[in-house]
Amino acid sequence: MRTLTDRYVHAVVRRVPEAMRPEVTADVTAMIADMAEARHDEVAAATEAAAEVEVATDGGADAASDADSAAAAEVEVAVLEELGDPAVLAREYSDSPQHLIGPQYFPVYRWLLTWVLPVALVVALVSNGLAYTLTTADAHIGGLLGTAIGKSVPVVFIAFAAVTILFAIIERATPMGTQASSGDAADRVGETLRAGAARRPRWTVADLDEVPPGGTSVRADAIVSLVFLVLLALVPFVPTTAVYVGHLNDGETFINPDLGVFWFVGYWVLLALTAVGAVWRIRRRRLSTGPVALDMITDLVMAVFLTVAILTQDVLHPAIATASALPVAVWAIPLIWAITIWDQVSTVRAYRTHLAAQSRS
Amino acid sequence: MVPADSPDPLALHLQEVRRGTVVLACLTACREPQYGYSLLDTLAEAGVQVEANTLYPLLRRLDKQGLLTAEWNTDEPRPRKYYTLTDAGARIADDLRTEWLALTASLTALWKDI
User: Fold this and answer.
1) pLDDT by residue (tens digit) across A123-153?
2) Residue A56 Cα, gap to closest chain B Cα (Å)
3) B60 contacts in A (CB within 8 Å)?
4) Buried-most residue among A9, A14, A312, B94 (CB within 10 A)?
5) Domains located in chain B, CATH noted
6) SS (H, E, C) A77-102
């Protein structure tokens, strides 16, 4: 049977990176041996004093050796318990970060989540809703909601996990600071540490951006908007094979290719107008009343335009429209207005926050 | 955030203050070659409280940073790793000591003022 010490060393070493293991094994073993020796000396000194009193009564050699090994076992337990939880000791030895995402990346991580999660939810709701209405013979609104929501929640969790894992990897891929591995490098590294603070460029007020507070997020939000506008512009070209319903119209597009040119051009013009607003925000890094109002009006016009298109035209590919038990107007129009209203509210809120930040600066 | 195992603010701040001083104490004591346990003894005698499970990993980190050099001595019955202060470590120890003395003077002055 392995000794307690062996088991303790193993418990520490298995928790540290592989490259460190031989060194940590030697270190921990030496530490335990030193501590045990010191403690043993203390115990021996104490028992020696006691033994001198009892030596006259009986002095069997076997009894003495039994007492020695019992004392050694006690010392071993006491030393290991003094060292405490092997996981904590391993953490002290380990150079890797003990957190998933550190303060350096946490703001970006949180910002990205606030973008990715709602988008993943909407995309999943739309595509699952679409797949349900197109593939279910007797589609009804309850089934549509149940299926779309039930299948979209895992997508949000997967998106959350993917972003988290990505940031955890970035956190670990970043250099952990200066470390030396050879004795020759020791002096150089010592110098580096010593001069580290001095060599770092000193921050001055000249480094301050001219952008008012919130500028970075205005720009980042606008870039994300631009990406989505491009994706939205591609919607008329999305083939049915994209959501496994290609058999319904031989892999043609979801949108009716025979829809009048006016509707396609109108759609792209409205998207282009919104894109102009986004580019303006990327360049100027701030929000102002005119462009924000224009953006909101364009969104409203787009919602009206799409509603009219759905009510008066065969927007969906005819083969899909006939396959669908639920008319497109029933789910698409409420969805369009829900997204539009959400967008209007969030635009107004973002603008008010931006104005408040500007007035503070 | 206060860790669950030290809800007492005093314990937490004492730990913070001591953590900063242990490095300087180690560097100072390692002007003479020391192995882990002898260093623990030296520090304890000097009144510097540090646990073995903190000290050994710290010595390894200081070695990696080039402030100490480590060498296994196999002449003794049991191999022991001896740590010695490097030139770079000595310079850092000097700087840290200067800072420590300045802090002590500042705190003494501050304490008198109020």
Assistant:
1) 888 888 878 877 777 777 788 888 888 989 9
2) 35
3) 23-24, 27, 93
4) A9
5) 9-107 (1.10.10.10)
6) HHHHHHHCCHHHHHHHHCCCCCCCCC
